[in-house]
Target: Triosephosphate isomerase
Amino acid sequence: MRQPLIAGNWKMNGSRASAEALMRAVVGGVSGGGCSGKAAEVALCVPFVFLDLGERILADTPVRLGAQNVCSEPSGAYTGEIAAAMLKEFGCRYVICGHSERRDYYSETDALIAKKMVRVIEAGMRPILCVGETLEQREQGLTQTVVASQIDAVIAANGIQSFAQIEIAYEPVWAIGTGRTATPEQAQEVHSFIRARIANHDALIADKIRILYGGSMKAGNAAQLLAMPDIDGGLVGGASLVAGEFLAIWQAGDASA
Ligand SMILES: O=C[C@H](O)COP(=O)(O)O
Model:
């Protein structure tokens, strides 16, 4: 049985004051919201500059801390970059790797993303590998080709065994921040394709790996998405910026467990 993971991706939003308020509200909701706090795991992937707040506020709570990016090199003369070991020092458990915004706006390649994932695993954290197709690719019938090549590139670079230490997030680019969510059936089709692709290499790892859905997930659609057999949680953008909305998604995850 895979424990659902509901991870918020705050992206580049918030101030120190709003970040603190949001963290405290999420901790309060998860700790005392009437749910077990055990059935679904919850994490907040915050901007680097709020990691210190996260370390203090989330410590000794069920809410895990995550980052949104990492340098592909372990240390050295890489001005402006943040090393995996630094994230680990702040108590991060998760690091998002290869989000479509980074692939698109910062030209991150599969090879670079695979390297970042190695750094995250070496430092004792878990990468959340994001994959997904654009609208144009979906309309051309290329969804499976695109997702397969993104997954295969990491398997080729890092080996299938590394997939025992990662999460995957399927995020159709056309659903991110658009309000247009994949239907549960559309998402399930791709999630099951991803699991089968991994099973070609290792059935046990495929069975255990958590595949999250991301793309306009909100309180109103989370339960239906999370009810699908191969959807093991959510990577939540916009809706993770509103405590009540995010907590409702977490509760849907809790109920689906
Ligand atoms: O990482 C999160 C995804 O990009 C989804 O963002 P969204 O929930 O705002 O569509």
Remarks:
- The pocket of glyceraldehyde-3-phosphate is lined by residues 9, 99, 171, 176-177, 214-217, 235-239 (CB under 6 Å).
